Amino acid sequence: MMNDRLQRIIRPQTLAASAYQVHDAGDRIKLDAMENPYPVPAALRAELASLLSAAPLNRYPDPQARRLKARIRASFGLAADQPLLLGNGSDELIQIIAQAVAGPDVTLLAPEPGFAMYRLIAAATGSRYAGVDLNAADFSLDIDAMLAAIERERPAVVFLAWPNNPTGNRFDLNAVRRVIEAAPGIVVIDEAYHAFAGNSCVDLLAEYAHLIVLRTLSKLGLAGLRIGFMAAAGDWIEQFDKQRLPYNLGTLNQLAADAILARHELLDEQVAAILAERERLHTALQALSGVQVWPSDANFLLFRVTDADRVYAGLLERGVLIKKLHGSHALLDNCLRVTVGTPEENDAFLEALRTSL
Ligand code: PMP
């Protein structure tokens, strides 16, 4: 029987897992996924159209994405010889790292609440996963608990999202250094929200040979292109590159990212608008009674209400989709997360929130 065969040949971890669920926003205002709310700048669209229409789609893409790597180094102020690996989103880079170390006795470790993919990818690749709770009040690293868990678990990989998703804060740099210094394997600093935070751990690469920095173009306004990058010492990049499928980034994606990053200043203007709106939203949420909002170094805000299920449903009814975190982790009781949108979208969210509280 078909089902017996399926049970017999699909791995137990896969049978036990569920596919990652993404809510369909329909025609609602979409503030659930940390996307940049602004489209590709108008000044670039004609150029993009002609570039893409002339692309040699009969040929495979450049497997090394050399041109795009050079553009990324220039756009993000990296050294001209900085070794890089590009992924189909930084999700793919997390998967590549996990695949390269995977094994039943291997542990991947991350603070929690954190980015769900670390745990999901650890399970999918057949490794163990250890989550270490953050401090409840401000979501800072519980450094004693982290160091004890590192000592106990001897993790091959420690993931630190900096700023952290879904809490929005950056962990104290001294605590981050202590984790890096205690880790027996590699430490991955995931800087997906770097554009909204300012400083970076890239400079620490020169100091720590077992540090890996991940970035993505997704939050910068190019989520549809699915491009992330890893910066690390060349010997690590060489190993991870063996795990990468040869043509993981399509020609159109490489071309479009190169052309858009060449006009990086246009994206910077969008980031500035998002930062201004983040402050306005934060102030507005702080002023609402029954709402507790945390500071954010990212393009989203975490907040707590008295009944997250009711507020989430009320927002949906009023045409606004955000992310419900309530139920995903004990520290996120009655918490919701809203991505910073355009001023109009944020106004609509605030209006819907006021009537849903
Ligand atoms: N890291 C973190 C911390 C994230 O929040 C996300 C997206 N939510 C990613 C990585 C993945 O981003 P992408 O695959 O789009 O590059």
Automatic annotation (TrEMBL):
<protein>
    <recommendedName>
        <fullName>Histidinol-phosphate aminotransferase</fullName>
        <ecNumber>2.6.1.9</ecNumber>
    </recommendedName>
</protein>
<keyword id="KW-0368">Histidine biosynthesis</keyword>
<dbReference type="Pfam" id="PF00155">
    <property type="entry name" value="Aminotran_1_2"/>
</dbReference>
<dbReference type="InterPro" id="IPR015424">
    <property type="entry name" value="PyrdxlP-dep_Trfase"/>
</dbReference>
<keyword id="KW-0032">Aminotransferase</keyword>
<keyword id="KW-0663">Pyridoxal phosphate</keyword>
<comment type="similarity">
    <text>Belongs to the class-II pyridoxal-phosphate-dependent aminotransferase family. Histidinol-phosphate aminotransferase subfamily.</text>
</comment>
<comment type="subunit">
    <text>Homodimer.</text>
</comment>
<comment type="pathway">
    <text>Amino-acid biosynthesis; L-histidine biosynthesis; L-histidine from 5-phospho-alpha-D-ribose 1-diphosphate: step 7/9.</text>
</comment>
<dbReference type="InterPro" id="IPR015422">
    <property type="entry name" value="PyrdxlP-dep_Trfase_small"/>
</dbReference>
<feature type="domain" description="Aminotransferase class I/classII large">
    <location>
        <begin position="29"/>
        <end position="353"/>
    </location>
</feature>
<feature type="modified residue" description="N6-(pyridoxal phosphate)lysine">
    <location>
        <position position="219"/>
    </location>
</feature>
<dbReference type="InterPro" id="IPR015421">
    <property type="entry name" value="PyrdxlP-dep_Trfase_major"/>
</dbReference>
<keyword id="KW-0808">Transferase</keyword>
<dbReference type="InterPro" id="IPR005861">
    <property type="entry name" value="HisP_aminotrans"/>
</dbReference>
<dbReference type="GO" id="GO:0030170">
    <property type="term" value="F:pyridoxal phosphate binding"/>
</dbReference>
<dbReference type="InterPro" id="IPR004839">
    <property type="entry name" value="Aminotransferase_I/II_large"/>
</dbReference>
<dbReference type="GO" id="GO:0004400">
    <property type="term" value="F:histidinol-phosphate transaminase activity"/>
</dbReference>
<dbReference type="GO" id="GO:0000105">
    <property type="term" value="P:L-histidine biosynthetic process"/>
</dbReference>
<keyword id="KW-0028">Amino-acid biosynthesis</keyword>
